[in-house]
Amino acid sequence: MGFKRKERIAIITKILVDNPNKIFRLQYFTDKFDSAKSTISEDIDIIKNLINEMQMGKIITIVGASGGVKYIPFLEKNEMKELLEDISTKLNEKSRLIPGGMVYALDILYNPNYLKKIAKIFSAYYYDKNIDYVLTVETKGIPLATMTAEVLNVPLVVVRDENKLTEGSTIGISYTSGSTGRVKTMYVSKNSIRKNSNILVIDDFLRLGGTSLGMQNIVKELDSVVVGMCFLIEIDNGKEKMIDDYIALIKMVENDDKKFDTSVNWETLNKI
User: Comparing C-alpha atoms, which of 193, 206, 219 is closest to residue 246?
Assistant: First the structure.
């Protein structure tokens, strides 16, 4: 069956968009459409220009024997701004304050529409860092980490607070919880991460960073390296964080009344 150019472009675009960060060899498309490489290259150039013009992300061409083409999903800057302003406005609602100096945010953290877009923002920072795994700690950060792993097209690894038999042989690390101040232990399977891997840590909230520091240490024990740490919300309570070199999209400043003033972290957003 012969395909016209507009049909090839539509199919190639769908394949790339449905498989973010996956490299497709040109040979894959030449075989699929029974077309010359020069023809497919022209199709991809058209798609690249369209994606760029619509600010939907990037089409990356990889040269060399193992090269090909892949799609990196981004959000258009105005859409990022609108999304984070919407989340910030919701988090400022007085009805969200709950006992213990906490803010109710589960409706945001479990909303797939929000999470898909937040994951694309995180991807914009780290798409070129050769991420091998996304790492998070149970439980509230799992949905956001799952979406980010999907966008980056890499496996998700979840650090547990219990040593489960189903995990097999595990590594345990003691850490101080930033929310409770208690010393706890986190566990991860020794089989979950290959040696010399690049890890992106994803979580929902950053308070003092004790849990995140624990994840950094457990990655070291697995002979791998944390290349980035992303949080949706950072709590600023005037205390120094236990970690550095991270990004947070929303900042919540705790005031004297134990309430929070929430705003978009424009400094972080402007780095994209």
Answer: 206
